[in-house]
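#lab-general

N.A. 3:47 PM
ok so I finally got the sequence cleaned up, no stray characters, all 763 residues accounted for. can someone with queue access submit it? mine expired

B.Y. 3:52 PM
send it over

N.A. 3:53 PM
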Amino acid sequence: MKVAVLGAGPAGLYFAISMKRRDPAHEVTVFERNRADDTFGWGVVLSAETLDNLAANDPESAGWIREHFAYWDDIAVIHRGQRTLSTGHGFCGIGRKRLLLLLQRRARELGVELAFETEIDDPKPYMATHDLVVAADGLNSRSRTAFAAAFQPDIDLRKCKFVWLGTRQKFDDAFTFIFEETPHGWVWAHAYQFEPETATFIVECSEETWRKAGFDEMSREESIAACERIFARHLGGHSLMSNAGHLRGSAWINFPRVLCRRWSHENLALLGDAAASAHFSIGSGTKLALESAVALADYLHSEPGLAAAFDKYEDARRLEVLKLQSAARNSLEWFEEVERYLGLDPVQLNYSLLTRSQRISHENLRLRDPAWLGEAEAWFQRRAGSSGNLRRAPMFAPFRLRDLQLQNRVVVSPMAQYKAVEGCPTDWHFAHYAERAKGGAGLVTIEMTCVSPEGRITPGCTGLYASEHEVAWKRLVEFVHRETEAKICAQIGHSGPKGSTQLGWQQMDAPLANGNWPVMAASAAPWSSVNQVPKPMDPADMARVRDEFVAAAERAARAGFDMLEIHAAHGYLLSSFITPLTNHRTDDYGGSLENRLRYPLEVFQAVRGVWPAEKPISVRFSACDWVEGEGVTPGEAVEIARRFQAAGVDVCDVSAGQTSIRARPVYGRMFQTPFSDRIRNETGMATMAVGNIYEPDHVNSILLAGRADLVCLARPHLADPYWTLHAAAALGDRDVKWPDPYLAGRDQLYRLSERSAVGSLRV
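B.Y. 4:20 PM
back already:
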């Protein structure tokens, strides 16, 4: 096979090596626009796993690479003069130039032709003269541009500016993150050794800071000198160096996140950064490139033709690439918003940084550095006011809101049961909530309990609009208080435009087959084309519904609930005022955010006036409508939270979406937690996180990183009422309170856990 490889970076060279390893008869030529010793960047980072993969593919080059590796186990975070260190991370680095020279040597040894200083503007001539063309021509791939219609690239130019420098200050004891505050804003560095006398030193900052500091008007030399001044106390008298002389300008760039729908076209395949990029903050770009090169070479020899090989290559690598890109996106977004976190305690800042990508979990940190994590957990417990065992996971730390004291941070999220009769909870509800209160959660929140018959979502929804409802709920509350350590919260709401619909296990959000009741909302905006057009609320409607919320709150208080939550999310009545997707009013209750919040705040203030002063109130709202270019955005959600905070709301239950059938959520683990994180750390307001949280690891990482104060779990509690108690057993926590009649079961579970029979329990 006659093969042209466009680009002599790690991806292109290693693919050429891999092809010649599999069949020396291949005629492989690597074309590169730069000279052999030109390279942008300094050190690259690989993992032990990647090294093993390289050794299996080509032991000779892997051995050479291993000889030149610098190894370190520690990560250091330097902030406001304090250095925080954790260990057990297992990195290895090598100079990019050294890596390229070793790969060039190996390629020549195998018979690969290397053609440097060859400008390639268009891949088409090579496609005509070669059986296979592999475009490994980097982030700004000309090959990708030439066939953009086929590859359909999605290139997202990210917010921060960075410059890739080097230094003789070795940073040989840890991968070091340095945060420095300047008169123009924060500037930070990623520093790590990659050879005995040299370290990578990547300087990064927001574009706003970059412009305020005048970097946009500086030459390369002036820019480097400015960075030297900013980081002088960390450089030990050493200078900063650039090896990007072959590039025009100052060498500051914005990172382009590259994602392509297709990686191949005719006899051309994309490889490395040309196909997909991963932000440098997780150090995996070279790993992706090398492992993808091996995979492509494998499939070109195992499959019957190019088309089949390309299909297998894309199928096999796309998932791994997307997983890494997801982690990289989380990481780069953390750095883009890092100023949000720089006020955290050093312990929490370090933890937040370490877990930013979601690749490192709480228990994974325990394996890496049990001593450091133990101290971090103790710090969290002390900060929470714990007087007991300080070596407990964050989920078992107490939490206080007004006079309400919770024994832990686990919340049973409100989940509609659709089993009420004329709004009245039944034995089903008693059994359901009693079990979850016995299951160890600190707070149990009942399903949205409607303030009027017309405010129900379905005929099976519970209410707090009649005396018999109050009696039934009071029986449950008294049981929870008498028999468990849990506290219980009443969530009250009005269905608005999503009312008069079928039960949850029938056709969700669809009108009843018969017996529909009228619905109302902020505007005449139906949930869908098959739902009723709601009546736009007039002043009399608004006054009446406000009073219904007040009456429901009074009944909840008499029933003895410990906390109250007002439901203003998910497209229900109060939500229909907040989001511009459904609020089309032209009076004082529509238009601006201030106007759209006016009625929800009026309802809250009226409820706060009758709810006991010593008891907290939360508000659940949708922090993102997930409708691109329209609706509530995460930025606007911060302002919404501030308005609720100023009005006296104690904690925000931060959900998202379900406000429009046009919503296109981006799902994943803990996918709504970033909204809680942003609100908490930009407003200082207590928050509850919710959304695809299902493991103790998730809960603990959210809490210790400061992304929320309480964590709500819904489906896990549907599957297992005793989720919290089982999580404690899996974590080796013996300080949780079990109901006395269940102690024998507890003891057996502990014995089994100690024997490792359930050591891998995932609850």
